[in-house]
Amino acid sequence: MQWIIGRNTAQRASGAWLMITLAALPCLAAQAPLSLSAYRALGQPDLRQNGINMVDAHALLSPEAVAVDSEGHLFVADTFNHRVLGWLHASSFQNGEAAGVILGKPTPRNSNPQGIGSKGLIFPWSVAVDPITGDLYVADFGDNRVLRFPKPFASPTRVEPDGVYGQPDFNTTTPNSNGVTEHTMRGPRGVAFDGLGNLWVADTGNHRLLRFPASVLSGTHPAADLVLGQADFHSASPDRGGAISASGFDGPFAVCFDAQNNLYVADYLNTRVLKFPAPINATSPATVVYGQSNFTTRGVPQVPTSSSMAGPSGLAVDASGKLYVAIPNDNRVLVFLTAAASGAAATPVFGQPDSTTNTPNTGAFPQASPTSLWGVAGLAVDSHGSLYVADAGNNRILSFAGAKQFLRQRTEPGQTWQHQGPFQDSRGLFARSVRALHLRYQQSSCAGVEGRRAFSYRRSGRPGHWPT
């Protein structure tokens, strides 16, 4: 695993201790990019295994989505086990840790569709947390609806939802049950919240996005107040029934927002991601396209490139303005700048050694590895700058640690950690042969403010581990 340190790094010292001082800089998360190597996994006992496990609170079967709330809870759509799992601490789980919350099932060993009856789940495809209430919303793909579960960790033993969207009641599950309207859905695959607490749904089978205002989320049979991708609430044709454009979708899979409330849409069958600038209304066209050079083309080349997307399925935007795009058919995650122009190249690439490779678990197949992916699906980022990846084909969730997670506020001066190498800065000053290093925190903890930070690194032959 690599961890890249900022520019103000001392030259290699000849003694046992290497001193690095970061002066007048923000907390490292603002400077250091993520490692391309995952450091922990859920659903598997380590970073190499990828088999299908016995159904219990530790196991995952093709998880399609992941979300992290403002309190640091992590939620996973365990799609082919027809349930949603929750972990108390996203920033400190251990490999293969058991979930603390199981939604939609009576016991951890149950994996039948609709395991609790009409309030159960059939292929939950996406999860999102209401930033105002902390309630969890789940795109229940097989039941053509979205379900709301009251703040799960406030009552960990509750397994049932208390709200339904896209259907008139919990007992109705047919697609477009009353025709294509502002109340109905057909196979929704994505859910997200904007900064105002409005719920957005990628109504995939109807080739549109629906917005449910925060004011109606607690009502009975709530109606959407805005539709994107169609001319009205009663249309459901791909690309608005016409040519590919900046305002139509063909199978939208995912949606997310950045800090400025700009909207991003994974337009799966059009092999692109669209950006809609805030404020958004029913006639808003996209102004930036990722994965294509313009708004009127679709498709991918025979050999992948640094910008091509063979069907984007998951999105996330971090606080520094990076857009992460999961592409399951390419077994990779591309990273773009949100400020980039249409057709821009991604850098870096997670899951592949370069921008032209797309094989599953490259370099490790049939096993997995900390740097490989297989059928990657959903994405999430947390307040520490860490990235969480639903690596569906490997039946696991991966965590790629951000620098703020490495230096959390609970750090105490003088505390010592170990880290398994290799370890190097942006210029490669530290030799790759250094297999383990101790880190001792010398001054006050990293709290996201400017100031002087000093660290010490010591060569060690003992096995290391990432801070917990």
Spans with pLDDT under 50 lasting ≥5 residues? 1-31, 406-468
Instruction: Give the termini separation.
Output: 16 Å
Biggest β-sheet strands, sense, barrel: 4 strands, antiparallel
Instruction: Characterize the overall form.
Output: globular
SSE string, helix = H, strand = E? EEEEEEEEEEEEEEEEEEEEEEEEEHEEE
Total DSSP E strands = 28
Give the helix tally.
1
**Sheet/helix structural class:** mainly beta
**Radius of gyration from the CA trace?**
22 Å
* DSSP helix fraction: under 10%
Instruction: Please give the order of strands in the largest beta sheet.
Output: 1-28-27-26
| DSSP strand content | 25-35%
Q: Calculate the mean pLDDT score and round it.
A: 84
What does it look like?
The chain has 468 residues and is mainly β. The protein has one helix at 403-406, and strands at 17-25, 40-42, 65-68, 74-78, 83-87, 101-103, 124-129, 136-140, 145-149, 163-165, 190-193, 199-203, 208-212, 226-228, 252-257, 263-267, 272-276, 288-290, 314-317, 322-327, 332-337, 349-350, 376-381, 387-391, 396-400, 416-420, 436-441, 451-459. The strands form seven sheets. Strands 1-28-27-26 form a four-stranded antiparallel sheet, with no helix packed on it. A hairpin with a 5-residue loop joins strand 15 and strand 16. The radius of gyration is 22 Å and the shape is globular.
What descriptive keywords fit this protein?
1% helix, 4-stranded antiparallel β-sheet, mainly beta, 1 helix, 468 residues, single chain
